[in-house]
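Forum > Structural Biology > Help requests

Title: Can anyone predict the 3D structure of Solute-binding protein family 3/N-terminal domain-containing protein?

Hi all, first post here. I have the sequence for Solute-binding protein family 3/N-terminal domain-containing protein but no way to get a structure on my laptop. I'd be grateful if someone could post the structure tokens.
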Amino acid sequence: MPLMALLWCCLSLSWASAARAESLRIATEGAYPPFNYIDAQGNLVGFDVDIGKALCNSMKVHCDFVAVEWGKLLDGLEAGFYDVVVASMADTPERRHQALFSDAYYRSHSSFVGDPSRFADLSPVSLSKMRLAAESSTIQAAYLHSEYPDSVVITPPTQPEVFTALARGEADLVLADSISILMFLKSPEGQQFDFINYPLDTSKLNSTAHIAVGKQHPELVQRINQAINNIRLNGDYDRINRKYFPFSVF
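Reply #1:
Sure, ran it for you. Structure tokens for Solute-binding protein family 3/N-terminal domain-containing protein below:
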């Protein structure tokens, strides 16, 4: 092979490798509006998706998004099917066995929602035998199992199904992220419900969302943290925040 052709071949392979190295595969749930969901055109959209795109733009990398069931997100990350998860995920000691976590990219709280005329006291004794619902494999579901042992805990696989259970009378109360509840209360199905008391103040319900990173990419955590800081400084974060919420979630 002529020398110039050989050099061109090597350069082409080098550029191709660099392009692959600068491409990230991002997973999200796709069933947790307004944070991540699939719109009428079949596109993955939502706050998490827009934040992921802004972070990729800041890091100057190409990103491909894929929807994965909530309960399978960390298993797929651990298996290397994708590089990061941007899905409103709390950083917990149990999850650290499977993933590394970025700094927080938004904050929220967990609340109960239901018929306010029926509930005021949320103590485990008062809610004994009541049907309490939360999305499966979430910190809210773990909290219900731990703190309400005498209640019937229902754990549908997606957040919309949790709210549907409440609307249909299949659950008495739902424990969920307060922002997600706010979106539900604005829907036709949520008109008869409201927050029950104040958000729960407990360390068991982590109020910050983080980006999960595959353990094989520790260097990526710092790059993502820097990108979170960058989009906070350049106005991208505030622009995305205003698109979805009338208040700051950071």
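The longest strand covers residues 100-107. The chain has two domains: 23-94+208-244, 110-196.
Shout if anything looks off.
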